[in-house]
Amino acid sequence: MPALPKELLEKVAATKVLVVGAGGIGCELLKNLVLTGFADIEVIDLDIIDVSNLNRQFLFHKQHVGKSKAAVATESVLSFCPTANIKHHHNSIMSPEFGVSFFKQFSLVLNALDNRAARNHVNRLCLAAEVPLVESGSAGYLGQVSVIKRGVTECYECTPKPAARSYPGCTIRNTPSEPIHCIVWAKHLFNQLFGEADIDEDVSPDMADPEAQQKNGQEDGAVDQPAANGDAPQTNNSSSNAERMSTRKWAIDNNYDPKTLFNKLFNEDIRYLLSMSNLWKKRTPPIALNYDSLPDEHPGSSSSSSASSARGHAGSGIKDQVVWTPMTCRDEFDHAVATLRDQLSKKEDGHVLVWDKDDETAVHFVTACANLRAYVFGIPLKSLFDVKSMAGNIIPAIATTNACVAGMIVMEALKIVDGRIDATRSVFISRLPNPRGKILVDQIPDKPNPKCYVCSEKSEVFVKLNTNAFTVKQLEDKILKQTLNMVAPDVELADGSGTIIISSEEGETTALQDKTLAELKVVDGSRLQCDDYMQNFELSLIIIHCQDFKDGIDFVIITDIADLKPKEADEEMPKEEEDVECVVASEVMPPETVGLKKRRTADSDGPDTKRARISDQMGD
Ligand SMILES: Nc1ncnc2c1ncn2[C@@H]1O[C@H](COP(=O)(O)OP(=O)(O)OP(=O)(O)O)[C@@H](O)[C@H]1O
Ligand SMILES: [Zn+2]
């Protein structure tokens, strides 16, 4: 590459840059930046180096495994460019200390992240701090770089991203038909037993399954619990799913005894499913497993040779690519349960294990459970390698793609530093050459979407839900955090009462979280003022009450305000609308009936005070 003009080189050297992420793209990017002449850099990454990173994250070597990515990346870059001024943070960019004032120090932010939550967050902070952002990503052979500048280009959230693929709860809990259904169930089971338990990730038979309840002779929803299930851990077998008992509590009460757990999961629950006869009218019914008599050969195979090699994890194939026999799965299950139980017992009170595709025991647990379930339902079994890649949603990372993306980031960064934002482009690496023979395709960045609830002037979102059933906690978790990507929302009724229903201060609104919205006077047409001080982001949420939700869907977000809004009357409710941009399916838990309790007003202790409190703690 020809040397940069002197004037640009000077600008480059004087530019303060933030690199977010020191993984596959981030390592290449840091190396490129210093070689280009950038000399004032801060880098942040929350992770430590894993052995699996070494094949493509070339700033890291074997001796660095277990150390901070940000620290080692900095050290490695300084070893070949000792004059650079690089500061590192071993932390998440979503931590409160990296707020708008932190972002304002930089002339440029470069993302090298791998997840949507962090990308959304950085997008919002760059918009708030008015710092240009270069966003990037890679997936196998595909790569992409785009420039985001407030008021000039579209932001990361101007175009809704497709929802992550999810599977209907009934399929996962009652009628799996593909290996992925069993893998999802096994990951949910890991969380129920050892991790952050989520009510939407229940693993026990679902009596509310509409198919099971079809009136057809006997109503399956009304069958008596089979005797073997009488002391079932997750006694959610009423059609309302109202009486849930914690799977975790049951497991603890049984000291995580692997055989007891096995019997419950792969025998008693399966016999219970079998009693829901409607489910098996057109499907092959599952088989309940017996802990003491499992085959040591693969389903359908008459020889046990492959089985014995699999059990010892030896044989000619690569160890992780051997498919375990049902008996090996049981042994692996026993071992993994015992190990995870020990790991959990060493945690401080209230702390749990976190599923990680790079944690060997966690992957062994999921592989064993997924395969035992697959065996129960006559679904093909998968190797540890396959389960790991399916459970981790892994598209193999390719070092050369990351290298190209990192190069493309620097090219766009140089245009920004040179004051030529109009010359920036969105650049894509495609899999096959286009008709003009190009693999790298660029396009002029799109303009901001005037309807974007993140970067447009009017941040309004409509949400349809059943105010009599939807709880405050569900509003916070499913809508504000999981769907609208807020991190620490404060929510106030915009009816002049100043009632705060959700506070980002821990414990402040805990007493309200199980109340339904209707109980807090949030009804059809209510407007909620939502504020995330960490993202400097405000949003009006307008509630549309809707009683009839089906198929496990319990709310619908509508962001296309213009089509919904009657021309004159702001307060009038929008009509039914098909322009739905996001649907999240889950079950609705029956609400508790408790009375309305008014909270403090914004004047007395509003989000502004909170912001000040946080900066006090930081000492700035
Ligand atoms: N909130 C965050 N704050 C700071 N760094 C983050 C955050 N979220 C993700 N990262 C970092 O972004 C980097 C993304 O890099 P990459 O896509 O190569 O992921 P990886 O974890 O290194 O690899 P793989 O996921 O394939 O094992 C990771 O190092 C990750 O730790
Ligand atoms: Zn936008």
Your description of this structure?
With 620 residues, the chain is α/β, with parallel strands linked by helices. It has 3 domains: 205 residues, NAD(P)-binding Rossmann-like Domain (Rossmann fold, 3-Layer(aba) Sandwich); 218 residues, Ubiquitin activating enzymes (Uba3). Chain: B, domain 2 (Arc Repressor Mutant, subunit A, Orthogonal Bundle), CATH 1.10.10; 159 residues, Structural Genomics Hypothetical 15.5 Kd Protein In mrcA-pckA Intergenic Region, Chain A (Roll). 33% of the residues lie in helices and 13% in strands. The protein is built from 19 helices and 15 strands. The strands form 2 sheets. The protein has an 8-stranded mixed sheet with strand order 3-2-1-4-5-6-7-8, sandwiched between helices. Strands 11-10-12-13-9-14-15 form a 7-stranded mixed sheet. Strand 10 and strand 11 form a beta hairpin. Helix 13 crosses helix 14. The longest helix is centred in the middle third of the chain and has 20 residues. It binds adenosine-5'-triphosphate and zinc ion. Zinc ion binds next to loops.
CATH topology of the largest domain: Arc Repressor Mutant, subunit A
Largest sheet: 8 strands, mixed
Indicate the CATH architecture of the largest domain.
Answer: Orthogonal Bundle
- Oligomeric state of this protein: single chain
Bound compounds, please? adenosine-5'-triphosphate, zinc ion
Spans of at least 5 consecutive residues with low confidence:
215-244, 303-316, 563-620
- What's the alpha carbon Rg, rounded to whole Å? 27 Å
Instruction: Give the strand tally.
Output: 15
What best-fitting shape do the alpha-carbon axes yield?
globular
- Biggest sheet strand order reads 3-2-1-4-5-6-7-8
Number of helices: 19
- Structural class of the secondary elements? alpha/beta
